[in-house]
Amino acid sequence: MNGKMRFIITMLIFGSIGVFVKKIELTSSEIAFSRGVIGSLFLLLASFLVKHKPSFKALKENTILLLLSGAAIGLNWIFLFESYRFTTISNATISYYFAPIFVMILAPWVLKEKLTRVKVGCILTAMIGLFLIVNPGAEGSSGSQNHTVGIIYGLLAAAFYASVILMNKFFKNLSGFEITVVQLMAASLVLFPYVLWQGTFTISGINSTSIIFILLLGIVHTGLAYFFYFTSIQELKGQTIAVLSYIDPISAVIIAAIFLNEGMTWIQMIGGILVLGSTFLSEKLEIKVEKEGQKPTTSS
């Protein structure tokens, strides 16, 4: 299987996460913790099978940053899963794709990058798109779900993911695969006390359907997907990765429509196009200025 096909499969796997999460009868923090544990164990096994030897010296040098970014990943998952519970997968996914916009806003202060007119245009366009999606007067925005709350959770998830993107630019002498394995382990470590404090997580109380979906979320959507991601990006150009990455949100909308009968109004569709279009343009700008040695990050 070539790199492009592995990357496409990865994006399709990421696009189906929301449907699986909605089928798991656990809290968002419990799902995030389970995902981190199972995913990190899978990747540790994969690294052993491919005889990948991590640089313990480099891991030690980046310990604090790895722990902070791991905690951010854990919080990112919790807010994303909460977003799925309060709104449609389409709304949650599109609001989550606000992460590149947050990176663009913070880059002048964190990375000392210049905020150009084009970037400002991308930010304003994305904000207009988000307003159209949240539009309380839009058809389908009412009902049992609280879409505004769900979208706010999606934006919080995007903010934490944006922090991971920015922190990943400061890692030294570590491969993307090594960073991901340790971040998943750190996420599990940080989430464990919180899940323990909640006191509701018991294996005996989980139904068989939830167990199956948790295993799939950890093994397929985390371990296998991340393994495919990092082995495929080594063979692809940055522009190809940027374009193919949009299979994730598009497939998420289609899968939600097929399996959950979710839909979007025309106004919300236009808003989604504005958000995704502005993030696509921002990623094209990022590719142009990206220097060698910067580490890519996964999308979900």
Give a structural overview.
Helix 3 packs antiparallel against helix 10 and helix 6 packs antiparallel against helix 13. It is globular, with a radius of gyration of 19 Å. It is mainly alpha-helical and 300 residues long. It has one domain.
Descriptive tags:
single chain, globular, 300 residues, 74% helix, 0% strand, mainly alpha
Distance between the termini: 22 Å
Number of helical stretches of at least 4 residues: 14
Give the oligomeric state.
Answer: single chain
Computed Rg: 19 Å
What does the main sheet amount to? none
Task: Please tell me the overall pLDDT.
Answer: 86
The tally of beta strands, per DSSP, is 0
Order of helices and strands: HHHHHHHHHHHHHH
Outline:
The chain has 300 residues and is mainly alpha-helical. It contains 14 helices and no strands.
What order do the helices and strands come in, and which of them pair?
Elements lengths: L2 H13 L1 H5 L6 H22 L6 H6 L1 H24 L2 H8 L2 H12 L6 H18 L12 H22 L7 H23 L9 H25 L5 H7 L2 H13 L6 H24 L11
